[in-house]
Amino acid sequence: MRILKTTFTNIKTNKQLFFASVGTITIALSILGLFLFVYINLNSVLSFWNNQVQLIVYLEDGISEGPKKQLENIFSTHTEIASFDFVSRERAWDNFQSMFSEKSTFIKGMGFNPLPASYNLAIKESSDRLAFIQNLAKKLSDHEGVESVEYGEDWINRFETFMILMRVFLFALGALLCLGAVFIIANTVKLSVLSRKDEIDLMLLIGGTPGFIKIPFFLEGIFHGLLGAFVSLGLMKGIHLYLVNQFQGSLESFGRGMEFQFISPPFIGLIVLVSIFVGWLGSFLSLQQFLGVYKKT
Amino acid sequence: MIQLYNVYKSYNNTPALVDVSFIIKKGAFVFVTGPSGAGKSTLLKLLYRWESFDKGQVLVNGINVGKLKFNKLWQLRRHIGVVFQDYKLLQAKTILENVAFALEIVGADKKTIRYKAWEALKNVGLSHRKDAYPMELSGGEQQRVAIARAMVNNPKILLADEPTGNLDPEMASEVLQLFEKANIEGTTIVFATHSENILHEGNHAVITLKRGKIADTRLVV
Fold first, then answer.
1. How far is B147 from A215, CA to CA, in rounded Å?
2. ipTM of this predicted structure
3. Which candidate, B199, B47, B215, B78, places its Cα nearest to that of A204?
4. How far is Cα A163 from Cα A175, in angstroms, rounded to an integer?
5. Class in CATH terms, A54-151
6. Do A178 and A278 meet the contact criterion of CB atoms below 8 Å apart?
7. Which of A77, A143, B17, B193 could be stapled to B9 by a disulfide with Cβ–Cβ 3.0 to 4.6 Å?
8. Which of B12, B195, B182, B170 is nearest to B83 (CA)?
9. Per-residue pLDDT of chain A (297 residues; tens, 9 = 90+)
10. Which residue in chain A is spatially nearest to B73 when comparing CA positions?
């Protein structure tokens, strides 16, 4: 109780400094949180695309029934394949025309069908789905009667590389911002410690234990970090709600079932834990520096 | 109670204490005197380990002061009350809160704090002014509050660093009487002063320092 009272007295004594410090930490954590928000949503786009990935096996024009049968046998033996659909050249052309003929008189006027027949394979969801598709594609591309196999490999690989870069960037940015926050808290707590120097001198003189002297300042630092974390999480939730209200419709048109993701509970927990650690470390560093002078005498 | 053996202390190669040895028995009242810069304050600071020393041995209440780690210093300091020339009262607290603060630091419960703080102020004749702030009191009254604060945890040793230095002779005498009272109750007193009047009035053993060395010791004037 006394410790909490002292902590809040410390904060009250340096009110302006406290709010400036919390504000700066809020901004630092919000920047980090926004990048995390972007990352999480890009990741969700990636997994949405992964789920949409279809393997299309394009067939050679003159393919006979034998290789077709063999291919269908392969499809049936793999339990990972949910279903397969044969699209003949004629059906492919019809589909293409129905999609684009209204927009192009050129397509309407074309006198021949340039599209190949194909098999469209739907793959069941699983964690190693992409690896399975890659293996199957490799296997099928060498099969007799198969012209080519497509599943948007380049796009997915490029996107995955981008996500790895994003992860590295997030980590570096997070480390830098946390370092900045530690520095800010250390300075705020240092000023708080200095403003109470007479009191600390007396505590040491009368026989206060190190814990008695340090704990209120540790709590002050932790409180800085926590308040900064909660305010920034609140800000991010506000931004998330705004995006959902304003742009959910546009996102749905981009891909059905897609939605803006908020930072998941484990990440929220991580932000709160990091902010507690950053607050404690800031206080610890400034107290070490301050009490170090007494240790030397 | 206090034993010093061949103690040396210097600040940046300037000697502050040179080969100081003495023993103060439990319940004694000892003056430490000497001109400014003789090492009186330094000597007192060694006893409550506010300063470390270069050589020698210091034992206070059976504790080997030189070997105490920083985070164990409280074990030594809880046996010692210290009074300063400039009182060192917290200006934002009332005088009752100032005395209570010393009890809070050692973890006393609320009820004990309230009772003992008031009792300590009563002992120095200031209970009627318990809600006053230090700035509202005279120098002598402020020093009495500082003594109440130093005594409230019933220390075995009371160290006073020129406690009458800022006071007129009448107030100085009043303050000395409080130390005499504490001594009669069994507290060991080490009182640093350069005032001949106080030395004369106190009539106790005296250690005289000159340039960091013990120049003279006498038991009774």
1. 28
2. 0.87
3. B78
4. 18
5. alpha beta
6. yes
7. B17
8. B182
9. 767 777 777 777 777 778 877 888 888 888 888 888 888 887 777 777 766 677 889 988 888 888 888 888 888 888 888 888 888 888 888 887 777 766 666 666 666 778 888 998 888 777 677 778 888 888 888 888 888 888 776 777 777 788 788 878 888 888 888 888 788 878 877 887 887 888 888 999 898 888 888 888 888 889 888 998 999 899 989 988 998 888 877 777 666 667 788 888 888 898 899 889 888 888 888 888 888 777 666
10. A207
Chain-centroid distance, C-alpha A2: 42
In whole angstroms, give the CA distance from residue A70 to residue A290: 79
- Residue B29 is predicted with a pLDDT of 93
Identity of residue B39: G
Domain range annotation of chain A: 2-49+157-290, 54-151
Q: How many beta-carbon contacts under 8 Å exist across A and B?
A: 50
Q: Shortest CB distance from A207 goes to which of B51, B71, B77?
A: B77
Contact B191, B147 (CB under 8 A): no
Sequence-ordered strand ranges (E) for A47-117: 54-59, 81-87
Minimum distance, in Å, between the CA of residue B101 and any CA atom of chain A:
9
Residue of A nearest to B11 (CA): A297
Q: Which of A55, A53, A92, A61 is nearest to A74 (CA)?
A: A55
The dihedral of CA A63, A69, A74, A79: what is its sign? positive
Which residues in B lie closer than 8 A to residue A206 (C-beta atoms)?
A: 77-78, 101-102, 105-106, 153
| B104 CB burial (10 A radius; 0-12, 13-18, 19+) | buried
Residue numbers in chain B where pLDDT is lower than 50? 220-221
Closest CA–CA distance from residue B218 to any residue of chain A (Å): 30
SS (H, E, C) B58-95: EEECCEEHHHCCHHHHHHHHCCEEEEECCCCCCCCCCH
d(CA B86, CA A80): 85
What is the per-residue pLDDT across B7-17, written as a single tens digit (0 to 9) for each?
999 998 899 99
